[in-house]
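C-alpha cells as discussed.
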C-alpha cells in the first residue's frame, strides 16, 4: 500500500522523524486560500497523488500569498499526472532550504535484506543521479537480524559525504527512519528531498512510503487509511472486485495468470520498447469467467490502447481462456483497443485456433511471449499489421 505524502509524513512524525510543520489538505481553492491566509507566510501547494514526477508535471507550486495559493490550487486540482487525477492538495508553510539531500530505506530482493541509499544530490530524480554519477549515490546493505546502529548510520552519512553541519542530525534521522521502517512493516521509506534549512535543521521535506499489504493486519491504523483513502480509483475498484491489479503509467494493458508470469510480461514489454499500463494477475487457476472480467477491467482504463494477455495453461485450459476472451469481447461490443493473446501449455493449440477462426480484426493470437510483446508494442505505436 502506497501512502500519499501527507499520510507518509504523519507516519514520520509519529515515529519522531523531523518534518516540515504540519500543514493542511485541501480539496477546493477556497480551502487553499484560507490556509495560506491563516499561515501568514509563503506556502507550498503540492498535488497528492500516488505517482512521482509531480514537480515536472506542474503539481508543486510555491505561492507567495493567499491569492497565489488559490490560483495554484485551481490549476493543480483536477490535473492529470501520469493518469492520476489530483483530487486533493497538501499545503505547507514554505521551508527555507539551504541544501537538498536524498535518503531512503527499502527492501532489497537481491540481498534479501534491507538497503539504505544516501546521496547529497537530493531534490532531483535519484535514478538519473545514479546513472550519470553513481559515485554520488551510496548504497549499503543492512542485515535485518542485526539492524542499524548509530555507528553504522554515521558511517553511511560520512560515506555519502554529507556536510559537517548536517551529519549529526542526518545520522539521528536515519536511525529514526530505519526504526520506523521496521516498526510499520514498510517496503520503502524515501525522503527526497531531505533538507538542511537556513536555520540549520535537517528535516524530511517530502515522503514516499510503501507498506507491505501482507502486514496490514498488524497495523489497524494504516489499514484504516487503505480503506478510506481510496488511492488510485482503478486500484480501488479492482480491490472491490477481488482483482490483483496495480495501475502503471503506460498504454499497454497486461494480464496473465500468475504473479511471476505477469512480472515477466512487464519486463518483456519494456524490453520491446513499450510501457505497461497495469499489472493484473488473473490467478493460477483462472477461469474463462475471471478472464473475461479481467479483460473488461483493463480495457476500461482509457489509457490502454493495446492489451497483452499472457497465459500459460496448466490447470487453466487455454481453450477455456480463448472462449473467455471471445465471450468478453462479445459482451463489450466494439472495443477500440487491439488485443494480443499469447497461449501456451494445456490445449494451447486449440485455444489459438479458436481465436484465429473467430476472425476478429482487433485480435491476434500468439504462441511466443517475446513475439507477442513485440506485436503489442508495435500495435500500441499505431503500426498497421
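Sequence:
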Amino acid at each position: 500500500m502506497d501512502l500519499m505524502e501527507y499520510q507518509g509524513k504523519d507516519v514520520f512524525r509519529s515515529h519522531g522523524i523531523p518534518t516540515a510543520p504540519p500543514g493542511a489538505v485541501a480539496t477546493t481553492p477556497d480551502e487553499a486560500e484560507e490556509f495560506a491566509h491563516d499561515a501568514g507566510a509563503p506556502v507550498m501547494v503540492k498535488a497528492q497523488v500516488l505517482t512521482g514526477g509531480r514537480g515536472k508535471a506542474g503539481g508543486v507550486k510555491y505561492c507567495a500569498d493567499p491569492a497565489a495559493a488559490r490560483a495554484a490550487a485551481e490549476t493543480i486540482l483536477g490535473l492529470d499526472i501520469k493518469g492520476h487525477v489530483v483530487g486533493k492538495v497538501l499545503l505547507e508553510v514554505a521551508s527555507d532550504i539551504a541544501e537538498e539531500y536524498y535518503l531512503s530505506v527499502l527492501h532489497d530482493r537481491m540481498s534479501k535484506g534491507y538497503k539504505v541509499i544516501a546521496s547529497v544530490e537530493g531534490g532531483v530524480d535519484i535514478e538519473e543521479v545514479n546513472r550519470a554519477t553513481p559515485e554520488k549515490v551510496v548504497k549499503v546493505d543492512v542485515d535485518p537480524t542485526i539492524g542499524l546502529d548509530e555507528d553504522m548510520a554515521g558511517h553511511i552519512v560520512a560515506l555519502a559525504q554529507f556536510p559537517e553541519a548536517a551529519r549529526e542530525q542526518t545520522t539521528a534521522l536515519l536511525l529514526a527512519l530505519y526504526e520506523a521502517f521496521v516498526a510499520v512493516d514498510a517496503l520503502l521509506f524515501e525522503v527526497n528531498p531531505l533538507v538542511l534549512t537556513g536555520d540549520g535543521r535537517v528535516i524530511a521535506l517530502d515522503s514516499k512510503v510503501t507498506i507491505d499489504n501482507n502486514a496490514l493486519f498488524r497495523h489497524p491504523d494504516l489499514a484504516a487509511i487503505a480503506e478510506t483513502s481510496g488511492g488510485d480509483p482503478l486500484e480501488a475498484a479492482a480491490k472491490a472486485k477481488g482483482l490483483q491489479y496495480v495501475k502503471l503509467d503506460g498504454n499497454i494493458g497486461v494480464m496473465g495468470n500468475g504473479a511471476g508470469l505477469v512480472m515477466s510480461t512487464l519486463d518483456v514489454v519494456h524490453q520491446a520498447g513499450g510501457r505497461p499500463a497495469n499489472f493484473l494477475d488473473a490467478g493460477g487457476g483462472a477461469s474463462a469467467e475471471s478472464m473475461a472480467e479481467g479483460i473488461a477491467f483493463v480495457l476500461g482504463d482509457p489509457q490502454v490502447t493495446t492489451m497483452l494477455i499472457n497465459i500459460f495453461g496448466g490447470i487453466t485450459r487455454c481453450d477455456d481462456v480463448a472462449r473467455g476472451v471471445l465471450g468478453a469481447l462479445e459482451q463489450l461490443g466494439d472495443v477500440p483497443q487491439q488485443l494480443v493473446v499469447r497461449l501456451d501449455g494445456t490445449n494451447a493449440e486449440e485455444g489459438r485456433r479458436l481465436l484465429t477462426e473467430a476472425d476478429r480484426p482487433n485480435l491476434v493470437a500468439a504462441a511466443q511471449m517475446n513475439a507477442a510483446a513485440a506485436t503489442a508494442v508495435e500495435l500500441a505505436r499505431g503500426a498497421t499489421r
